[in-house]
Amino acid sequence: MTAVHLSIHDVMPTTLEPVADLIRMSQAHGWPPPTLLVVPGLEWDQAGIEQLHAWQAAGHELAGHGWRHRISGYGGLYHRLHGLCISRDVAEHLSLDADGILDLMRRCHRWFGQQGLDAPTLYVPPAWALGRLPRSRLGEQPFRRIETLGGINDLERGQVAFRALLGYEAGNPLQHAALVINNAINRKRAPRAGLRIGLHPQDAQLPLAGALHQDLARFTPPRAGG
Questions:
Q1: d(CA 3, CA 215)
Q2: Which residue has the higher pLDDT, 225 or 137?
Q3: Backbone dihedral region for residue 127 (phi beyond 0: left; psi -120 to 50: alpha; all else: beta)
Q4: 36 and 48 in contact (C-beta within 8 Å)?
Q5: What is d(CA 14, CA 218) in angstroms, rounded to the nearest whole number?
Q6: Any bridge partners for residue 154, and if so which?
Q7: Contact, 150 vs 181, CB < 8 A?
Q8: Which of 32, 39, 129, 224 pairs with 78 at a CA distance of 20 to 30 A?
Q9: Res. 170: pLDDT tops 90
């Protein structure tokens, strides 16, 4: 196995408890602190901000994850199909043009500093959907790394790491079928391509929870020096 990376999505004021449960689950399988994908544009109270500080101090990387994690409207047929098969109503980038996407990303990055948190270097758009932002304009936003379905684009190094991806957020039968097929393909790709495992707060209560536990056990990275 080459590189393997674990992240927990949708860290919001209303999801802190299930996120903590997923952190404990990953720890039980021997994983290092997963990256936490934070949605800034919600009603964060002081207790929630303090929890983010505590997680950051414990070694969790905090990454930007959209602004409100909800769309303001559909951006066309592709967006509607994407919502049906993958993203439901969370892919907020797909309803924006390039200027709107850049504004959202800058606002997201700025929020962390306003809360006294370390400035994030990683940005993951909701549902991994970057939207209509040309590659030529990626340098106009403040994040060094951007993760989409295909992999992680390191803008500073000019490199793209195309890593396999496993997910478990099967909210309807179509998503369940798509994830079963996608995960089967990507488990086979993982040894040569590297792997990302993306968890969502309710995954442990959804139909693919068993597969989630099996994958956390199967792909646990070796301990440093082990």
A1: 15
A2: 137
A3: left
A4: no
A5: 30
A6: 145, 159
A7: no
A8: 39
A9: no
CA of residue 176 relative to chain centroid, distance: 18
Phi, psi of 186, deg, nearest 5: -75, -25
Residue 195, H or E segment: strand 195-199
- What gap in Å lies between CA 59 and CA 82, rounded to an integer? 34
Whether the CB-CB separation of 22 and 201 falls below 8 Å is answered with yes
Q: Given the structure tokens 């991994």, which residue do they identify?
A: 128
Residue range 46-93, pLDDT digits in tens: 999 999 999 999 999 999 999 986 666 655 544 445 555 554 556 888
Cβ density class 60-90: b for 16+ within 10 Å, e for less:
bbbbbbbbebbbeebbeeebeebbeebbbeb
Instruction: Give the predicted TM-score (pTM) of the model.
Output: 0.91
Report d(CA 65, CA 82) in Å as an integer. Answer: 18
For residue 95, name the pLDDT band (cuts at 50, 70, 90). confident
CA distance 104 to 221: 34
**Bridge partners (DSSP) listed for residue 63:** 37
